[in-house]
Design goal:
With 332 residues, the chain is an alpha+beta fold. Strands 12-13-14-15-17-16 form a 6-stranded mixed β-sheet. Strands 4-5-6-10-7 form a 5-stranded mixed beta barrel. Strands 3-2-1-11 form a 4-stranded mixed β-sheet. Helix 6 packs across helix 7 and helix 7 crosses helix 8. It is globular and about 65 Å long. The two termini are 44 Å apart.
């Protein structure tokens, strides 16, 4: 039976929908302050764009900026409330602003639903995991799922997906040793499962091996439909083997988190491993310099970990390590 496994971790909350012993959906929500989907927040208009139908607003508390559509009758500097419809998303050289829409004048500020709230609302049973004891997330494939997100490579019997992030869309290429027909069908199932597991949303392009027959292309599309739950729209598979999928984009995918906010994402994942390592007492964390810099900038994370392990935490930077390869050792 399917169930959500949920952890309140250091610097983040985590959840995985597990069915048949494997992760079907994976979510990581950082504790860093941000505008969250569903939040109603007081803002001020700070910039009107050229067409005067859109503008940039800034939250009264926290100074978070967001893009407001359908800008009508709002004066510069005026305070009003908006509802967040999309969270900010990191990109290679910038951060794409959150999106908001104006709320009714009498709507009060409210917090956004948390990750725990959202998974509870699905109606599927939720099990909150303690930071000790059997690691049920790891047994279900937690580390492997994070590695898929970080590398963009998802293997399946007879082939692999290669996930590439672009400003316009997420592209998924299917490659392998099977004949084109079987490879396309296996790739369709793997792509649909990966899109769901890694939380890939927005515009998604899937490049299948070229399949000439219409019936074969319909069969590929049917596999995607059966694997990927609503809500989404898609095109047909064209003669070149390309299929486009559109899913509502509310927040960053796991791929975007581990590619565009890589150091912080890997740092929090490392803290989870150390917390569950079984080490007690004074511990040294060894990691890539970028990871060490994140930890030094978040001393409350280290205080939390120190309280759990019962000893001081020291840090050592090793540039030879990959960002995902940090580890901890007991020093005394």
């Amino acid at each position: 039976m399917a169930e959500w496994l949920y952890e309140t971790g250091i610097g983040e909350a985590r959840a995985a929908l597990v069915d048949g012993g494997v992760i079907v959906e994976c979510h990581v929500e950082a504790d860093t302050p941000a505008l969250r989907v569903g939040q109603v927040v007081a803002v001020r208009l700070v910039e009107k764009q050229a067409d005067a139908t859109r503008g940039i607003v800034r939250s009264v508390v926290g100074n978070h900026e967001a893009l407001l559509d359908r800008l009508t009758g709002i004066d510069m500097g005026r305070s009003f409330t908006v509802m967040v419809t999309r969270e900010a998303i990191h990109e290679p050289r910038a951060v794409k602003r959150a999106k908001v829409r104006a709320s009714a004048p009498d709507v009060a500020e409210t917090a956004a639903p948390t990750l725990y709230d959202r998974i509870t609302a699905t109606g599927t049973p939720v099990t909150a995991l303690p930071p000790h004891g059997p690691d049920r997330l790891e047994v279900a494939g937690w580390t492997e799922t994070l590695e898929e997100a970080a590398t963009g490579e998802v293997r399946f019997p007879g082939g692999a997906l290669r996930i590439s992030l672009t400003p316009a869309m997420t592209l998924i290429d299917i490659d392998g040793e099977l004949a084109p027909g079987p490879l396309a069908l296996a790739g369709a199932q793997a792509a649909g499962a990966a899109i769901r597991r890694l939380g890939i949303t927005g515009s998604i392009g899937v490049d299948f091996p070229t399949i000439s027959g219409k019936a074969d292309r319909l069969a590929i599309a049917a596999v995607v439909d059966a694997t990927l739950p609503p809500i989404f729209e898609r095109t047909a598979v064209n003669g070149f083997g390309f299929l486009q999928i559109i899913r509502p984009r509310l927040r960053a995918s796991l791929c975007e988190q581990f590619r565009y906010d890589a150091a912080a994402s890997h740092a929090r994942a490392l803290l989870r491993r150390v917390q569950r390592s079984g080490l007690i007492g004074v511990v040294q964390i060894v990691a890539h310099p970028e990871i060490i810099a994140v930890l030094q900038a978040n001393l409350d994370w280290l205080d939390n970990l120190s309280a759990h392990l019962g000893g001081a935490i020291t840090l050592h930077a090793d540039p030879a390590l990959a960002r995902s390869a940090g580890y901890a050792t007991k020093t005394r």
